[in-house]
Amino acid sequence: MSERATALAGQGNLPPATAHQFDDAVQQHEASGLGMWVFLLTEILFFGGLFTIYTVYRSLYPEAFGHASSTLDIELGTINTAVLIGSSLTMALAVHTAQVSRNGRLVALFLFATIALGSVFLGIKAIEYAQKFHEHHVPGPFFHYEGADPQQSELFFCLYFLMTGLHAIHMVIGVGILGVLGVMALRGRFGPDYYTPVELTGLYWHFVDIVWIFLFPLLYLVERHT
Amino acid sequence: METAERIDPPARADGGTNYLNVNYGVRSWLLTVDHKRIGLLYLGSITVMFALGGFFALLIRLELLTPAGDLVGPDTYNKLFTMHGIIMVFFFLIPSIPATLGNFLIPMMIGARDMAFPKLNLASWYIFIVGALFTLWAVFTGGVDTGWTFYTPYSTVGSHTKVIPVAVGVFINGFSSILTGLNFIVTIHRMRAPGLTWMRLPLFIWALYATSIIFILGTPVIAITLALVGVERAFHIGIFDPALGGDPVLFQHLFWFYSHPAVYIMILPSMGVVSELITCFSRKAPFGYTFIAISSLAIAFLGFLVWGHHMFVAGMSPYAGLIFSFLSFAVAIPSAVKVFNWTATLYKGAIAFKAPMIYALGFIGLFTIGGLTGLFLASLGLDVHVHDTYFVVAHFHYIMVGGALMGYLGGIHFWWPKITGRMYPESLARIAALIVFLGFNLTFFPQFILGYLGMPRRYHSYPDEFQVLNVMSTAGASILGIGYLLPFCYLLWSLRYGERASSNPWGATGLEWQTPSPPPTENFPVTPIVDVPPYHYSEEEAVLV
Amino acid sequence: MLEKLGLLPPAAATHAAQVDALYLFLIGLSGFFALLIGLLIIVFAIRFRRRSEHEIPSPIEGSLVLELTWTIIPFCLTMVIFFWSARVFVSLRTPPRNAIEMFVVGKQWMWKVQHLEGRREINELHVPTGQPIKLTLTSEDVIHSFYVPAFRIKQDAVPGRYTDEWFEATRPGTYHLFCAEFCGTWHSRMIGSIVVMEPADYQAWLSGGTGATGAAEGAASVAASGEALFTSLGCATCHRGESGALGPALGGIVGTKVRLQSGESVEVDDGYLRESILNPQAKIVAGFQPVMPTFKGQVSEEDLLQLITYIKTLRASPGAGGAHRES
């Protein structure tokens, strides 16, 4: 066994199973972590396309974007922001608990709390989307906007639905993965010797949270200073 | 000049137990996690796609024999060149070397048992297949006619063809690329054998590493862009449609932000292959190893900064044009550095003219011409005239066919003994390489002239005075087609009748040649330890001139 | 001579010689380097061919001097090309002040040309020699590109905005006009002719009006048509040119800068006028209410060009309620 693996074994880090391609658990853990960071980098570029389009159109039509933004429900948006940050807290608690204890039920509790908060977020988003639907602010053939620049406002709403929609899709996938992890945690699969899936899902969840931290001001707070 | 005994155990008469015969059956292939088998799954799939894309090219060249549009109707012709482009770019060239040779060789070259994420590797192949099936379904139920560039608003509003399924197919295929790139990066970073430092890596690995960076940073942007084209088309919204307040030039910026680096995805791996071929068949370490390695990274980096050179007459500001032109000249320099270094490697070498070497030397010549004509296109004043003409078509075919494809064929031949345990017929292979080289030049050189004369791209019919050059081009294309058919035939033939290959038939350095041909599933029974520089053909200290 | 050999297209404008010179220089340079590499490869391949199976050459790791040489020299050469081609480009993109304007509207699959004096053409453009001409381009549907190989000029016609290109024809004759941006089924038939004439012949053609292809309307100039539209669409109601009017006075406004409600200032050019007619709320002049209705759907691209041409003929009147101009 390599020196590093021996040293870590002293901390109870002997792997339950190291995949055949890896020399030891340390290599496996490092490779998995690097893989997730590289994946998140690709996600930044993926969302980046939409952020670029947003930047272009907002700088072309600042007033239209400001007016359209003020039709969004800022209370719900703020609540959602708090909910999502809270879910990152429960996620971090889940990762920490798995890192320091074998208490699978506590890990599962935190994971299910994250799922619950994520679901609240998605539920509130659904309410907002329904509101927009009733106001005829959904872009497309049934779009109708009373303000000054309907066409440019429609661009704002396109970006609103595309960006929050893509974000929501990522949340749904995250909630799904968290469900699987929760079940695994209840079965005692995680502990200080092996918590990689929880850690990596935590990275993913925090990333999704950070994307929202950017989306919220860009979409909801465009003209709130007056 | 030294001489040395080559240490190369002879081939076993029965081939031994290796990754090919360790188990049989469709399930053992479709559920494999062995990077070598996955490489072969890709090899089969992209060969099918190449044949289809090539068939469309044949029809295009047949149509262009006469000035009138008399072989197929205009809509059909538009679909032919669109689908030729989409299939060749997204489903052949981009995966070609990385997914076949890269998957097969990266773990072997770095002394690893497999990739970092073998199951993800298999998933990448399945994602590729799903993307290809979407696209093929669209191709065979009506096709798409927007050009592989999908410019709006034609693609979102004007075209009445299967844009959305093809956009979905390319979108899905993008994830195959992204995951492959991710796998390569983690593997190269984390799974090198003890002693294998970065500066001891084969240049092929450096090339694939740089390619993988482009995979992960560029592909997500085209993914979201094509997704938006689909959404805009389906829901009649106007991100890129001026009639609804959008900007069609914004589409072009987003499209080319990926598609320009994509061309470096297509050429960098081939350059990596050429580095391996030149060194092995000169039996000499590469001249300027560090410079060749760093130039791959430089190309990847600079390649992200030049996309606007596709848009000099699109309505972009002239100031932006100046910046993109300047950077486009800059990105030519690292490629030139490689060409000079390869040529210098030949100096005082011991050169053998095996088929792979003929492909490599052909690559250098044709890539040089293609790259130099890139300077014409980077020149603002000149590009105005030749943009969207056959000059551009000739330029990129010189790079992608004369360059990338020849490197791919050279690599397939070079590593064929390792992959299959068989030698291909050498004389026939050399003749085929020469046929490819001649056919290629006859096909595409006349197109430079056609372009400067003013013949636009994507033209179904053309003025009479362009006919002679078009006939030459089609004649060349038939020769080129024969040149491609030959390897297809004799490589398949060699699987059964080819001479059995030893571990290291070429006497090359590199860890992959330290294993039997074909290798066992786990590649190395014991992880090798590396304590020599790369390309250690001579045991003497290398001289710094 | 190269033209006679069929290697160059005809050179019929002042640009052509500039572009051809750059092209030939690049051919020479590329030919030199391609031959150099090719020869070196052939010479090395023969001279250093492997003579025995066990031959092992001495290793040569590299040479910093050589690397720097063949990095710096190509870089310097590319910079020469860059600056030269940039100069040609800037000249290509800077129409002279005395250029006369013509309008081109591309649509699937034809080119509609409008001379300011009133003549219209379809898929043909008659021009005189010795006179700089600036084409303002737009498209009614998808992106097209107005390409004249003999002039070495090309510019995309983009829907939703104006682009322009200019040339000065030098040699009478008929030359190809191609659409150079794929635009659908009949992209390769969206072609036509540029007819270059001596100035006297051109004047005759301009006031003639019989036997030409395309609808040769009566002598109504573009500006006159624009004036008719200005009245019939009711523009004059608000843009009365008096203080207290609902809309800014338009006399002499083209080419000046105006300050907008948002605080920034823009130059009043063709594109701004077009945008303000179609999308009046986008860039409202400071000091005016957002009450202008949109004329989207009521005016075609040609109508817009006529209105803009008319507005350009208006002169400022003293005491007018003008926009807050930037000097």
Give me the number of helical elements of chain C: 7
In CATH, the homologous superfamily of chain B goes by the name Cytochrome c oxidase-like, subunit I domain
Number of helices of chain B: 15
Say what the CATH topology of chain B is: Cytochrome C Oxidase, Chain A
Helix content of chain C: 25-40%
Describe it:
The complex is a heterotrimer of chains A (226), B (545) and C (327). By secondary structure, chain A is mainly alpha-helical. Chain A has one domain (39-220): Cytochrome c oxidase, subunit III, four-helix bundle (Four Helix Bundle (Hemerythrin (Met), subunit A)). Chain A has helices at residues 3-9, 25-60, 62-69, 74-100, 104-134, 150-186, 196-220. In chain B, 66% of the residues lie in helices and 1% in strands. Chain B is globular. Chain B has helices spanning 26-30, 35-63, 74-109, 118-140, 154-158, 163-190, 203-235, 248-282, 289-303, 318-346, 355-378, 380-386, 390-420, 426-453, 467-497; strands at residues 2-3, 543-544. Chain B has a single domain (38-514), classed as Cytochrome c oxidase-like, subunit I domain (Cytochrome C Oxidase, Chain A), CATH 1.20.210.10. Chain C has 327 residues and is α+β, with helices and mostly antiparallel strands. Chain C contains 7 helices and 15 strands. Chain C has helices at 14-47, 64-92, 199-208, 222-232, 235-238, 270-278, 301-313; strands spanning 55-56, 60-62, 100-107, 110-115, 120-122, 124-128, 132-139, 144-148, 153-157, 163-168, 173-179, 192-197, 257-259, 265-267, 325-326. In chain C, helix 1 (14-47) packs antiparallel against helix 2 and helix 4 (222-232) crosses helix 7 (301-313). The longest helix of chain C is centred in the first third of the chain and has 34 residues, at 14-47. At the B-C interface, strand 1, helix 3, helix 5, helix 8 and helix 9 of B face helix 1, strand 1, strand 2, helix 2 and strand 9 of C.
